[in-house]
Each structure stands twice: as structure tokens, then as C-alpha cells.
From TrEMBL:
<keyword id="KW-0663">Pyridoxal phosphate</keyword>
<dbReference type="GO" id="GO:0019752">
    <property type="term" value="P:carboxylic acid metabolic process"/>
</dbReference>
<dbReference type="GO" id="GO:0006520">
    <property type="term" value="P:amino acid metabolic process"/>
</dbReference>
<dbReference type="InterPro" id="IPR002129">
    <property type="entry name" value="PyrdxlP-dep_de-COase"/>
</dbReference>
<dbReference type="GO" id="GO:0004058">
    <property type="term" value="F:aromatic-L-amino-acid decarboxylase activity"/>
</dbReference>
<dbReference type="InterPro" id="IPR015424">
    <property type="entry name" value="PyrdxlP-dep_Trfase"/>
</dbReference>
<protein>
    <submittedName>
        <fullName>Aspartate aminotransferase family protein</fullName>
    </submittedName>
</protein>
<keyword id="KW-0210">Decarboxylase</keyword>
<feature type="modified residue" description="N6-(pyridoxal phosphate)lysine">
    <location>
        <position position="295"/>
    </location>
</feature>
<keyword id="KW-0808">Transferase</keyword>
<dbReference type="Pfam" id="PF00282">
    <property type="entry name" value="Pyridoxal_deC"/>
</dbReference>
<keyword id="KW-0032">Aminotransferase</keyword>
<dbReference type="GO" id="GO:0008483">
    <property type="term" value="F:transaminase activity"/>
</dbReference>
<comment type="similarity">
    <text>Belongs to the group II decarboxylase family.</text>
</comment>
<keyword id="KW-0456">Lyase</keyword>
<dbReference type="InterPro" id="IPR010977">
    <property type="entry name" value="Aromatic_deC"/>
</dbReference>
<dbReference type="GO" id="GO:0030170">
    <property type="term" value="F:pyridoxal phosphate binding"/>
</dbReference>
Length: 465
């Protein structure tokens, strides 16, 4: 054995303790460290020929790279839709790495059963029935890809084509209808051979809504000429967290033949709040569902889950025919259900967090984040230099400059906020207007944090950014 590696093995408890100490220092400093890193990255070092050992590697990371990482785990990182990592989920993630289970198949481990248990809990959390099976994937983009892949196979079933064997070309044109699809939908269509150009935008409800007009959707379905189509409904759009009327969309299946995929990447968590649960009424009627867990469940990157009613079609798409991997049975190994053969035990951090805090703890995070988004929205609305672009419907505040909201000036405002070290928000375009988004999903965020974000927005916008 390499002597440096042997030395690390002999001192493994001390090395893990040192890593723990560094992690504690970094996390404890989230309240004071800049939310976004500033300054250039260091130059690249050459590949080491001789190793220096774990302790020296840890020290080098702490000095050279840790200060340049963002404070995305902290309470004022409001960019994208990014959660933090609850204490229990961090512990679960560390255990995931330490136990290093191979989730390709059973492999002498019962880790797959833990994933199945966690998927069942999540299914219940989001109000889905037992007809939905699921599996962990890397994120919402992959969850959407899996859902549309199963939908593609369903379309082939309707047309008498085995797409998994004959290929997408044998299927012919397959349209995807959606009102406000996330960009990952087009990416998935490209990956699956459907083609980005087969996305058919459906008119939205009037009044600045991002929700689909169900009557217009019915018109589009009626014009499909009897060919199967895929419909992507949205449960929480990225700009304004608008929701399609899922129950009304699902009711159209009584008259038209289509696959209903619901992108509920973070909107599914509305189910936890009695005040907002009606927004996801009808989610259970979906043929496939996407939910991202490193958003509002606040588990470490990367983790999402996909659900579907048609595990048989999912198996047709993703099964891996190899003697050493075994044949899929009635309860197939997960490698037969998702694109990855090699699978990390992503379920374990989610399992830890659900056990530690339960439905009630996660509901409190959702309801507090919604209240804080409303607080920031009211503050933005009161500032003379800023204006809301849309009502605060759930946990995202979409706003812009009140005067001359050009792309250049809005980008300058975003840079000023990041440069302050106090907060981080991300740019968008809503209704043709450049703007910014502040997304509340972090379990740490408090009213005091929200007021600090508002203060830096007031200062930056008041300087004429």
C-alpha cells in the first residue's frame, strides 16, 4: 500500500475529526462570510506526483479554495431556487460517503430498501397515491427527462411502436404542449430525440399569469389529429411560482389521449401547507411527476425524485440487459429505472431529514419561507427605486428597477447586491422586462435576514444602479 495512503488509514479518525472541525468553522461563519465569492480564482496547480496526505490536503483546501466558495448554504443566498442543508441531512450525507453503498443493485446490501422507504414517504408527503412509483435522480432536469422518456414510450405504445428498440425516429413527430415550461424541458426533448422544435407553447391566462389557459390547451389537443401528445403542466413556475390548474388539465384526459407530466420541482412542497395545498390539487392524476429535493427539502446537492404511474414503461426504457446485473423482476433494481447505472445513496440525507424533522418540521420551513417572501415583497413594493413585476404567490419575489429597467442597469443591480456580500439574487426576464428573483427556500432564513436583504436592495437601487 502507498505509504501516504497507509498513514491516512492509520489516522482515519483524526482525519475525519479535522474535516469535521473545518466544516463546523465554515458553517458557523455563514452569518458573516460574503454570500457570493469575489475576486479571481487562483491559478491552476499542476497535478501532484507525490501525495501530501489527507491533513495537508485539507489544509490546502481551507487556505486556497474554501474562501472562494459561495455562501449558498446560508440564509441570504436567494439565487435560483436553492435550499440549504439541514443538520440531519448533512449527517446523512456524511454517512452516505462513509458507507459508500453501490445502489446499482442489491449487492449484499439492503440500502435499496431504504430508498424505497424514502420514496414512499415522499409520495405520501406530496399527496400521491400508491399507483405512483419513484426513484431518486440527480435533479429536476433529470427527473423531467425521465418523465418525458416514459411519456415517449407511452406514445409509442399508442402507435404500436417499441421506441426503446426502434428509436425515436420510428415514432415520428411527437409534440409537447406546455404553457410556461422550464428550460430543462427543451433540454430533455433534445436529449430524447424529440427535438426542441416540437415544443408547442400554449397561451397563458391573461393578467400577467404564467399559468396555462386550459381552454387553449383543449383547443391544441383537439388539433392534434388523433396523434398522442405529451403535456407538461407546471406546479410552480420559476419567475412567479404560478400553478396550472392541475385538476382541470387532468380532466381533459377524459376526452383526449395525452401523457400528463407535472413539473413540480419545488411547487410540490405547497402540499405541506394547509393554506397552499389546493395549488397542487390534481397532482395525483399525473402520469409522471418531477420534484427536486435539494430545493425545498433542504438536502445537499444533488437530489431529486421522479414518480410515474407506468413503471412497466419506465422499465422498458431504462432496463440494463446484462447477466452480471441480473434481470429486472417485479421490484426491479434502480439501475433498471433511471439513466444512471452507478447510483449514490442519495436517499439517505432525505431519510435522515424526514426522520429528524418529520412532516411538521418541513411544513414549518415552507410556511416560514412563504411568509418571508411576502415580507420582502412588501418591502420592495414600498421602495421608490424598485417595483414588483408580479404578486408574491408563494416563495419567489420577482422585481425590477422602477425607472429605466434596462438589462444593463438590472445586471448592475445584481452585481451590486452580490458585491455587498449581504445577499445573492439571480436575473430573469418576465413579460419581456429584465428583472431579478429572490427565492426563499433555505431553512435558516429569518426575518432579520430578510430585512438585511431589503436594506442592501434599497441601498443599491438608491445609488442609481
Amino acid at each position: 500500500m502507498d505509504p501516504v495512503l497507509a498513514g491516512d488509514l492509520a489516522r482515519l479518525p483524526e482525519l475525519l475529526q479535522a474535516a469535521r472541525d473545518l466544516a463546523v468553522r465554515e458553517v458557523a461563519g455563514l452569518a458573516v462570510r460574503p454570500v457570493a465569492a469575489s475576486g479571481p480564482a487562483p491559478g491552476r496547480d499542476p497535478l501532484p506526483a507525490a501525495g501530501v496526505g489527507g491533513d495537508a490536503a485539507l489544509a490546502r483546501f481551507a487556505e486556497r479554495w474554501a474562501p472562494l466558495f459561495s455562501g449558498s448554504a446560508g440564509p441570504r443566498y436567494l439565487g435560483f431556487v436553492t435550499g440549504g442543508a439541514t443538520p440531519a441531512s448533512v449527517a446523512g450525507d456524511w454517512m452516505t460517503a462513509a458507507l459508500d453503498q453501490n445502489l446499482s443493485g442489491a449487492g449484499g446490501s439492503r440500502a435499496q430498501e431504504l430508498e424505497r422507504e424514502t420514496v414512499a414517504w415522499l409520495r405520501e408527503l406530496f399527496g400521491l397515491g400508491e399507483a405512483h412509483s419513484g426513484a431518486f435522480v440527480t435533479g429536476a432536469a433529470m427527473s423531467n427527462t425521465v418523465g418525458l422518456a416514459i411519456g415517449r414510450e407511452w406514445a409509442g405504445e399508442r402507435l404500436g411502436v417499441d421506441v426503446s428498440r426502434a428509436g425515436a425516429a420510428a415514432l415520428g413527430p411527437l409534440d409537447v404542449l406546455s404553457g410556461s415550461p422550464h428550460s430543462s424541458i427543451e433540454k430533455a426533448m433534445s436529449v430524447l430525440g424529440l427535438g426542441r422544435d416540437r415544443l408547442r407553447p400554449v397561451p397563458l391566462l391573461p393578467g400577467g399569469r404564467e399559468a396555462v389557459d386550459v381552454a387553449a390547451l383543449e383547443t391544441a389537443l383537439a388539433g392534434a389529429g388523433g396523434r398522442p401528445v405529451l403535456v407538461v403542466a407546471n406546479a410552480g413556475t420559476v419567475n412567479t411560482v404560478d400553478f396550472d390548474d392541475l385538476r382541470a388539465v387532468a380532466a381533459l384526459k377524459e376526452r383526449y389521449d395525452f401523457w400528463l407530466h407535472v413539473d413540480a420541482a419545488f411547487g410540490a412542497f405547497a402540499a405541506l401547507s394547509p393554506e397552499h395545498a389546493a395549488l397542487v390539487d390534481g397532482l395525483d392524476a399525473a402520469d409522471s411527476v418531477c420534484v427536486d429535493l435539494h430545493k425545498w427539502l433542504n438536502v445537499p446537492y444533488d437530489a431529486a425524485v421522479q414518480f410515474t404511474r407506468r413503471r412497466d414503461l419506465q422499465l422498458a426504457v431504462f432496463h440494463n440487459a446484462s447477466p452480471y446485473l441480473g434481470l429486472p423482476g417485479s421490484d426491479p433494481d434502480f439501475l433498471h429505472l433511471t439513466p444512471e447505472n452507478s447510483r449514490r445513496l442519495r436517499a439517505l440525507p432525505a431519510w435522515f431529514s424526514l426522520v429528524a424533522y418529520g412532516r411538521d418540521g418541513h411544513r414549518e420551513v415552507v410556511e416560514r419561507n412563504v411568509a418571508l417572501a411576502r415580507r420582502l415583497g412588501a418591502g420592495v413594493d414600498a421602495l421608490p427605486g424598485l417595483e414588483l413585476l408580479a404578486p408574491v404567490r408563494l416563495n419567489v419575489v420577482c422585481f425590477t428597477l422602477a425607472t429605466d429597467p434596462s438589462a444593463k442597469r438590472v445586471a448592475a443591480l445584481a452585481r451590486a447586491v452580490a458585491a455587498s456580500g449581504e445577499a445573492y439574487v439571480t436575473p430573469t426576464v418576465y413579460g419581456g422586462m429584465p428583472g431579478l428573483r429572490a427565492a426563499f427556500t433555505n431553512w435558516r432564513t429569518t426575518e432579520a435576514d430578510t430585512d438585511r436583504v431589503l436594506a442592501v436592495l434599497a441601498a443599491a437601487s438608491g445609488r442609481g444602479s
